[in-house]
């Protein structure tokens, strides 16, 4: 991957976001949206961020992505109080300048800090858990919400659930695949739902793609979910 394309991505801000709804499955309503990064320069978001990282531009791209997601979301019509979930790399969140940056950004919009969920993605090794713990604690103390994405996908996600005490965990879509036919996956989901209930942590099941998957998930106690069956990523409706 050439540095030229990374420059086009960052200096030209050659990217955009679409938003996928997150549902309360019991009340049958949208409670938030995940901002999903897209760029015509790259086949997949991960490829864009890995390319930026190879030229020491990951932090810059992450900041630009967060800025675009927050400003875009604040300019569109919402039913009232929906949360914005923003994917951010742990190395970005762990930097000392991140907390003042996100505070200034959100406070410059119509959003409340409590509407913004910083969602840690599991696409890199965590270099300093102490820095990450310190900053995530500051984020929560400042009114933001913390989520861990794709729990169960990486080797450290369950450890982070304990170390960082997030208000929200999103379970990797591996667990929803074949869920209606897998007793082991059903037991795992029940166990995680129970853990989250005991620790007052919101549990979101990702990747729901069929009516049967949704039905089984609800039978297992899952109250919140996301996936193509519930709603595809798309632009948001402009405020009138």
UniProtKB/TrEMBL annotation:
PROSITE patterns: EAL (PS50883). SUPFAM superfamilies: EAL domain-like (SSF141868). It comes from the Bacteria. Residues 1-240 form the EAL domain. InterPro entries: Cyclic-di-GMP_PDE-like, EAL_dom, EAL_sf. This is EAL domain-containing protein (Putative c-di-GMP-specific phosphodiesterase class I). The lineage of its organism: Bacteria, Bacillati, Bacillota, Bacilli, Bacillales.
